[in-house]
Design a protein that fits this description.
406 residues, alpha+beta, Nucleotidyltransferase, domain 5, Dna Ligase, domain 1, five-stranded mixed β-sheet, 18 strands, globular
C-alpha cells in the first residue's frame, strides 16, 4: 500500500518497527508497532547478517500482525562509528531577471555535494545549514529573494559503504525496500526538540545501548553531530562485573533500582538478586548499585561535555542539553548533568504525533517517532505544516535524498 508509513529503528539492544498511515484529515494514525531483541549488531553496526536479518524479521512480522498489513518499504535509522561528517559549501550565479527559486536551490546544493568522497564511502545526507545572498549571511529561506550570487553552507554526512550495504541487505532480506536512511541523532532531535530550542542553540544526546549519538542545533539547523562509543550497555556491564551477577540480572537491577545520585538513596536499603552458578541470592546495597552507575554516568556526561566543547559551539547553547534514548531513563541523570555541566539539562520525550498512545512517547522511542515525523513530512498525501524555519531545510534534505543513489 503506497500510503503506508513505516519506520524501523535498528538499535544495538532492540529493533522497533512502527507502521502507520495518514487519515483523510491528514492526521497520522498508528496501525501497529513492535520491538524485538536486537541480535547481530554491535554499536549500531551489523556484524552478523543472518542474526540481524532474523531479529529485524521478528520486529517487522510482529508489527505487521498488529497492523494487519504487509509493508513494502521503510524509513530506516542508521548510526555507528563508521559515520563521519564534514562541512562544505557551494556557490552559483543567481538569475538577474527573477527571484531565486527551487532550480537555484537544487543547483547550489549540487555544487556543495561536489566534494571528494573516498570510494569506500557513500553520502547519507547533504543538509543546508544557512544561505548567503549577495553577501547577506544567515539567510534561512532564500526562495523569493532577489540576488546575483547564491551561496550555501552545507553539512555532509557519509558512512562506510559496506556498513550501509550490510544494513540495507538485512532489511531487504525481509522483502522490504529501504526508502530512506536517516541518521539516528537527527531523527531523535526531530522528535524531542522544540523549534525554540533549535533556534536558541541546543545539544541532544540519544543514549542507546551501544552508542550515544550527539547532535548540535543552532539557528534552527543542525551544525554538528558525532557518535560516542559508550551507551546503556556499559552501565549494565559495570553492574554485572562488579556484582558478579548475570547480565540480564544486572539489567533488571539497573532498571528497577538504579539511580545516578547515590546520596539520595537511604543507606540501609538493600536488594536481593541471584548470582552465577546457582548460588543463593546475594544481598546488595542499593546505594552501592547507585555508586557504580553514577561513576559511569559521570564519565558519559564528561564525554558529552568534551564533544560539545570540541565542536566550538559550547558557549552558544542557550537551551543546554537534552538527554533521550533508553539510557536517559536512569533516575537522577538530568540532575547530575545540571550539576556537572552547569547548563540546562532535561530528559527528552517525543512530542505527540497523531494517535500514538502517550505510553509509547518515551525516550527509548525517540528515534522511531522521529523517523515517523520525517516520513510524515515527506508523505505525498500529507500537508502537515512544519516548524517555522525548518520547512525549506526539510524540502532540501528530501530533494537531495531523491537525487542521491540508493
Amino acid at each position: 500500500m503506497s500510503d503506508l508509513i513505516t519506520a524501523i529503528d535498528v538499535g544495538t539492544t532492540k529493533i522497533c518497527t512502527f507502521i502507520g498511515e495518514m487519515t483523510p484529515e491528514n492526521e497520522f494514525h498508528l496501525l501497529g508497532a513492535a520491538c524485538s531483541r536486537s541480535r547481530g549488531l554491535r554499536r549500531g553496526v551489523v556484524v552478523n547478517i543472518a542474526a540481524a536479518t532474523e531479529a529485524i524479521a521478528e520486529s517487522i512480522e510482529k508489527a505487521e500482525a498488529k497492523a494487519g498489513v504487509d509493508i513494502e518499504e521503510a524509513h530506516v535509522g542508521i548510526v555507528g562509528g563508521h559515520i563521519s561528517f564534514e562541512s562544505s559549501s557551494g556557490v552559483i550565479a543567481a538569475p538577474r531577471n527573477r527571484a531565486i527559486d527551487w532550480p537555484e536551490i537544487n543547483r547550489v546544493l549540487a555544487e556543495a555535494q561536489a566534494v571528494p568522497i573516498p570510494s569506500d564511502r557513500d553520502i547519507i545526507h547533504v543538509i543546508a545549514r544557512t544561505f548567503t545572498v549577495d553577501g547577506q549571511e544567515g539567510v534561512q529561506e532564500p526562495i523569493g529573494m532577489q540576488g546575483r550570487r547564491l551561496e550555501v553552507d552545507a553539512y555532509i554526512v557519509t558512512g562506510a559503504r559496506t556498513a550501509i550495504g550490510n544494513l540495507k541487505k538485512c532489511i531487504e532480506n525481509n522483502g522490504v525496500t529501504v526508502k530512506t536512511l536517516v541518521l539516528e541523532p537527527l531523527a531523535s532531535g526531530e522528535a524531542v526538540l522544540t523549534p525554540e530550542e533549535r533556534e536558541a542553540g541546543v545539544a541532544v544526546a540519544d543514549i542507546g545501548g551501544g552508542t550515544t549519538d550527539i547532535a548540535i542545533y543552532l539557528n534552527g539547523a543542525i551544525w554538528h553531530t558525532t557518535i560516542l562509543k559508550i551507551g546503556g550497555n556499559h552501565f549494565t556491564s559495570d553492574l554485572a562485573t562488579i556484582l558478579h551477577t548475570p547480565q540480564p540480572v544486572a539489567e533488571k537491577l539497573k532498571a528497577r533500582y538504579g539511580h545516578a545520585l547515590p546520596e539520595l538513596i537511604p543507606e540501609n536499603e538493600t536488594v536481593n538478586a541471584p548470582g552465577f552458578g546457582g548460588k543463593p541470592n546475594q544481598t546488595y546495597s542499593r546505594q552501592f548499585i547507585a555508586e557504580i552507575l553514577s561513576a559511569r554516568a559521570e564519565e558519559l556526561l564528561l564525554f558529552i561535555q568534551r564533544e560539545i566543547n570540541r565542536s566550538g559551539y559550547g558557549d552558544l547553547l542557550s537551551a543546554g542539553l537534552v538527554l533521550t534514548g533508553g539510557g536517559s531513563r536512569l533516575p537522577g541523570l538530568d540532575a547530575l548533568g545540571r550539576e556537572m555541566l552547569g547548563i540546562p539539562v532535561r530528559i527528552g520525550r517525543p512530542a505527540p504525533l497523531g494517535d500514538i498512545p502517550k505510553e509509547m512517547l518515551t525516550p527509548e522511542n525517540a528515534c522511531g517517532v522521529g523517523l515517523l515525523l520525517q516520513a510524515v513530512k515527506e508523505n505525498p498525501y500529507s500537508t502537515r505544516p512544519e516548524p517555522s524555519g525548518s520547512s525549506l531545510m526539510s524540502k532540501i534534505s528530501r530533494w537531495m535524498r531523491n537525487l542521491l543513489p540508493g
